[in-house]
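Internal tracking record. Fields below are filled automatically when a chain is submitted to the structure queue. Please do not edit lines marked as system-generated. If the sequence contains nonstandard residues, flag them in the REMARKS field before resubmitting.
Queue: standard
Priority: normal
Entity type: single polypeptide chain
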Amino acid sequence: MKQKKTSTRLQRLDELTGLLKANDHNLVSDLAENLGVSPRTIMRDLEILIEKGYPIETCPGRGGGVSLHKHWGLGRLHFNYKEIIDLLLSLAVMEKLHSPIFLSNLKSIRHKIAASFPEEQRKQVQAVRKRILLSEIASESNFTPPEPDNKSILKSSANSVYEAFFEMKMIKINYHDVKGAQTERTIEPHFIMLCWPVWYILAWDHLRSDARCFRLDRIQKAKLENEKFKLKSSQTLIGKLENFTVRL
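SYSTEM-GENERATED OUTPUT FOLLOWS
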């Protein structure tokens, strides 16, 4: 195996946990080689994980090794608040599909996940959730398909908008509207809205000095700015649009 350097013990413990989750059986020698440390260091790290409550099992002999208990589940996963939002948003979007089978428990699952995190993290999650809006699925008569732009360009722009949204920073975009006109705007991405399958950004537009709605797939280029913005009231922004409701 190719050796990999780890900068801190905390990072190494996270990577070690990931390796244990990924494989049913792990030899200490393989774990040590993968993380670029000695087997003795791996044994010390395993002791730390055990003290933290990780259900680590050892199986001596050929074919044995180190593993996490097979019933190790979601309750022991560690998420940052951005990952929590992604998870909750995914569940909320799935609810919108109104499937007659398999999806009947999504709402209760979503509530249990939200309630399982520490109070401070729940506050962060709640603050961001209020800025994510879900509309009904677009009807065929009103639906206009996503722009057929280069996927790598769209992904790059979406990532920049995503970061600006979470960090509450201004972002400079190159935007082309439905008529093909292109403009450069500096915007404050206050809300993200989904009218499946199209994503929108509800923002304060410095070019127009007013609230504007931008389709994410029509943003050709996006550059994150250092300047932060303060969240405007929902009445100032959401009041300018109809048919969007907070559902997440």
